[in-house]
Amino acid sequence: MKTLSDLDLKGKRVLVRVDFNVPLHTGANGETVLGDDTRVRAALSTINAIREAGGKTILMSHLGRPKGGPDPQFSLQPVAHHLATLLNAPVAFSAETTGPAVADQIAALPEGGVLVLENTRFLAGETKNDENLARDLAALADVYVNDAFGSAHRAHASTEGVTRFVGTTGVGLLMQREVEYLRKLLKNPEHPFVAILGGAKVSDKIGVIEALLEKVDTLLIGGAMSYTFLKALGHEVGSSKYEEDKLEEARSLFKRAEGRILLPVDHLVAAAFDNDAPQRVVEGGIPEGQMALDIGPDTLAHYRTIVLNAQTVVWNGPMGVFEMPNFARGTFGIAEALAEATEKGALTVVGGGDSVAAITQSGFEDRISHVSTGGGAMLEFLEGHTLPGVAALD
Ligand code: ADP
Ligand code: MG
After folding, report:
1. How far apart are alpha carbons 353 and 43 in whole angstroms?
2. Ligand 2 centre from 278 Cα, in Å?
3. 230 phi and psi, to 5 degrees?
4. 389 forms bridges with which residues in the sheet?
5. Cβ atoms 170, 142 nearer than 8 A
6. How far is it, in rounded angstroms, from Cα 61 to Cα 150?
7. Which residues, in sequence order, are CB contacts of 242 under 8 Å at separation 6+?
8. Staple 74 to which of 57, 64, 203, 302, CB 3.0 to 4.6 Å?
9. Cβ atoms of residues 154 and 389 within 8 Å
10. What is the pLDDT of residue 93?
């Protein structure tokens, strides 16, 4: 796999798949307003490296889920505009994604210039990995670079197909970092290796649990996922969220883990799914009419000790409903434990859409070894699946 520094970019048309799938809102006057721009900022290092090397940067991305063709609501134009501000340099925009007009625009671009193409998902061939679209995209480029780790688990025309028709391909700086950290986790992790899994559902993460059980010394479970396990083991879970159809699977996973799966021993419960609902800590069974919305203090203390003893830690899935500040203590406490473990020399990795939001809110983001930008992609990587967008660059 070639990295940017391995590539000769001077004067070259460098087609870069980025992840500009940013949240958009409608402003007071009906205009489109860009939400959190983390993903745009994350691409700056790769873009600047190409500019400094004298390449022409041609950026493409998907944005949202437009149905059946172009939809101005999902245009990348506002993102291109914002990028110009961040780069403090002109950024051209092409209302088309492929074709002769785009090729002309690229030809007119100076060395070091930047062009953003319109949303790849406006084209039906994108998600179908259509060969003609892949060829059309490739026709725009001398070099293809993929920097969109979050889309690497999908074999789309802009992530996989295109690589078959461009002679030179490589990874961007973001993607390089993602792959390096995640490979470290799976190849030769230092022990003790601890995984923490939480979040909404066991069903989303059965594959990950199975794969991680092959690698880790301890698997700490939190979040709503806990209650499927606890219920499966015969505990009362009150009205906590759990998955009836996954009880059997949870029981069998727990058994197979031979003591390496730990479950919460106490919980923060309330009678309603409401930040202001009166809360209390319960140990053992959860009474009828009560739902667990966070792990309890004893569980947090125990999990912390285990994390602080680890040399490698991977975390996906919040420990509770952290979106409600009164039930965020468990999640933020784990975030703090990871930060402390990192300072003691452990390798720590956090990923997942909601988990990343949680770690950002916790304020510990900068004290973690690596915060992954890929939700689904990271989970698939941890499951041991080959990511088409990564494999295509090998
Ligand atoms: P990620 O996006 O990081 O992979 P998930 O999507 O699996 O995480 O889960 C995140 C969601 O799980 C959050 O919205 C959070 O509110 C929810 N959650 C965590 N614990 C509980 C709980 N005890 N009850 C209900 N929902 C929970
Ligand atoms: Mg999620």
Report:
1. 18
2. 26
3. -65, -45
4. none
5. no
6. 11
7. 224, 227, 228, 230, 231
8. 64
9. yes
10. 98
> How many Å apart are CA 21 and CA 63, to the nearest integer?
4
285 CA from centroid of ligand 1 (Å): 21
Q: Which of 242, 293, 321, 327 to mutate to test the pocket of ligand 1 (most atoms within 8 A of CB)?
A: 321
Q: What is the secondary structure of 299-344 as a DSSP string?
A: HHHHHHHHHHT-SEEEEES-SS-TTSGGG-HHHHHHHHHHHHHHHT
Cβ partners under 8 Å of residue 114, min gap 6: 47, 51, 56, 57, 59, 83, 87, 89, 90, 91, 92
Give per-residue pLDDT as tens, 261-302. Answer: 999 999 999 999 999 999 999 998 999 999 999 999 999 999
- Cα separation, 372 vs 374, in Å, equals 5
Residue 229 φ/ψ, nearest 5 degrees: -65, -50
DSSP 237: B
Ligand with an atom nearest the CA of residue 378? 1
Helix (H) or strand (E) holding 388: helix 388-391
Other CB atoms within 10 Å distance of the CB of residue 324: 17
Q: Which two tokens stand for residue 51?
A: 């500019």
Residue 372 and residue 378 in contact, taking contact as beta carbons nearer than 8 Å: yes
* Residues taking part in catalysis: 39, 201, 353, 376
- Give the strand pairing for 312-316 and 193-197: parallel
User: CA-to-CA distance for 261 and 228, rounded, in angstroms?
Assistant: 13
Q: What does the buried/exposed string (b/e) look like for 247-267 if buried means 16 or more CB atoms within 10 Å of the residue's CB? A: bebbbebbeebeebbbbbebb
Collapse the DSSP code of 357 into the 3-class scheme (helix H, G, I; strand E, B; otherwise coil) and give the result. Answer: helix
pLDDT of residue 36 exceeding 90: no
